[in-house]
Amino acid sequence: xxxxVQCDKLFDSIDQDQNGEISYLEFxxxxxxxxxxxxxxxxxxxxxxxxxxxxxxxxxDFEQILGDSKFNNANEIRNMLANADMDGDGR
Length: 91
Fold this sequence. Notes:
Number of domains: 2
Number of helices: 5
Shape: globular
Oligomer: single chain
Distance between the termini: 35 Å
Number of strands: 0
Largest sheet: none
CATH class of the largest domain: Mainly Alpha
Helix content: 55-70%
CATH architecture of the largest domain: Orthogonal Bundle
Order of helices and strands: HHHHH
Structural class: mainly alpha
């Protein structure tokens, strides 16, 4: 089975409402469910998103990941990060 097919199956299993997007709550549920993601898979996903490799997910990482997609909106990214930023350090 190719990596693309595996990614599609994983995405579909996490996207509980099947709206084509993984919400924060769906991601958390999958992260906590050992049947979906192992710690290694979570670490690998984090490393992929940590574009600059500094150990943090920051606005610039998400802007690079999203590229020219319709989801690359600086204000929405900033709001998303603000909601998840437990200590207020911007990452």
